[in-house]
């Protein structure tokens, strides 16, 4: 069976007429008739019956038409995907990232990239550390921002883009809220509002408290930075959040205070599948990100 036979069959089925189909295909009528006859012989069934001057699909022909159209549609999509793969200006970037980066960093990066490549499309997928790794390995995304950066992994690799400081966030009017900096041990008697199990910021905060000499007393848990920030602002406890998770202009806001000891940071990296070439459009975006964060970090150090 040849693809040409499927094309001819679908065209005749739509036109219900060999001559009209041949005219639209720009081939001889005899060529169309011959291909349809060969297809019927190979399948061992009649696909059409004569009805006046037109052809009509048999029941099995109607069934075969659905399958043939699906095959040709898949083929067309495959061709488009290959074209997008080869042309970075027409492709789609499948990008994963944690929720905390979606507040400001991802929109800024994507907006900056699209100024140079306005026709590139994005497909986003948010997730926690384990799900981002899993989606990348399964091929559901091509690149992922991730925190903390996985230094050693059998199936993914990448680069650290930046290291970000975490701040203590306190309710307005808290006894320590007017300080420029505090030591983390000063929060040992406070109730903490932390991320739920599975979120990468939770172990960072927990381990920092242990390094400071105490176990954090967890009063509330949340799954989004907006929730953590809001609960702290409402006086439900204290927490630690990275600076980029604190860009918020609402009326109810916590107070941000630098932690002098111990140093509490998180790494943010960009990862992709190991030993596998990126689609060309994703490779262009990858190179853009490395330049972007080189400039980004230089400005932060000034």
Describe this protein's structure.
42% of the residues lie in helices and 24% in strands. It has 302 residues and is α/β, with parallel strands linked by helices. Strands 3, 4, 5, 6, 7, 10, 11 and 12 form an eight-stranded mixed β-sheet that branches. Strands 1-2 form a two-stranded antiparallel ribbon. The protein has a two-stranded parallel ribbon with strand order 8-9. Strand 3, helix 5 (105-116) and strand 4 (121-126) form a beta-alpha-beta unit. The longest helix is centred in the N-terminal third of the chain and has 28 residues, at 59-86. The radius of gyration is 29 Å and the shape is elongated. The model has no long low-confidence stretch (mean pLDDT 90).
How do the strands and helices of this protein lay out in sequence?
Elements: H1 3-15, H2 18-25, H3 29-43, E1 48-51, E2 54-57, H4 59-86, E3 92-97, H5 105-116, E4 121-126, H6 129-137, E5 143-146, E6 156-170, E7 181-183, E8 191-195, H7 201-212, E9 217-222, H8 225-233, E10 239-242, E11 255-261, E12 265-273, H9 280-301
Parallel strand pairs: 3-4, 3-5, 7-11, 8-9
Antiparallel strand pairs: 1-2, 5-12, 6-10, 6-11, 6-12
Helix pairs in contact: 1-2, 1-3, 1-4, 2-3
Notable traits:
elongated, alpha/beta, 302 residues, single chain, 9 helices, 8-stranded mixed β-sheet
Largest sheet: 8 strands, mixed
- Give the averaged pLDDT, no decimals: 90
Q: Helices and strands, in N-to-C order?
A: HHHEEHEHEHEEEEHEHEEEH
Structural class: alpha/beta
């Amino acid at each position: 069976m040849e693809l040409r036979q499927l094309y001819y069959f679908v065209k005749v089925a739509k036109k219900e007429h060999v001559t009209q189909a041949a005219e639209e295909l720009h081939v001889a009528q005899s060529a169309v008739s011959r291909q349809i006859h060969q297809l019927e012989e190979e399948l061992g069934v009649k696909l059409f019956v004569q009805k006046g001057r037109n052809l009509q699909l048999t029941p099995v022909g109607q069934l075969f038409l659905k399958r043939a159209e699906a095959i040709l549609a898949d083929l067309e999509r495959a061709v488009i995907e290959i074209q997008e793969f080869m042309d970075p200006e027409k492709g789609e970037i499948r990008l994963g990232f944690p929720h905390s980066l979606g507040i400001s960093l991802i929109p800024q990066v994507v907006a900056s990239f699209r100024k140079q490549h306005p026709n590139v499309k994005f497909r986003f997928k948010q997730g926690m550390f384990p799900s981002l790794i899993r989606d990348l390995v399964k091929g559901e995304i091509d690149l992922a921002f991730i925190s903390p950066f996985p230094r050693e992994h059998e199936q993914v690799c990448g680069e650290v883009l930046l290291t970000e400081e975490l701040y203590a966030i306190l309710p307005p009017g808290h006894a320590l809220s007017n300080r420029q900096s505090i030591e983390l041990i000063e929060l040992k008697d406070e109730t903490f509002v932390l991320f739920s199990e599975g979120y990468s910021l939770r172990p960072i905060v927990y381990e920092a408290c242990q390094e400071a000499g105490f176990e954090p007393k967890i009063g509330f848990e949340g799954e989004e930075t907006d929730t953590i920030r809001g609960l702290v602002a409402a006086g439900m406890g204290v927490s630690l959040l990275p600076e980029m998770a604190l860009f918020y202009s609402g009326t109810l806001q916590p107070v941000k205070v630098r932690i002098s000891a111990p140093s509490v940071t998180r790494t943010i990296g960009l990862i992709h599948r190991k030993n596998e070439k990126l689609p060309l459009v994703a490779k262009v975006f990858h190179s853009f990100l490395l330049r972007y964060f080189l400039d980004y970090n230089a400005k932060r150090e000034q």
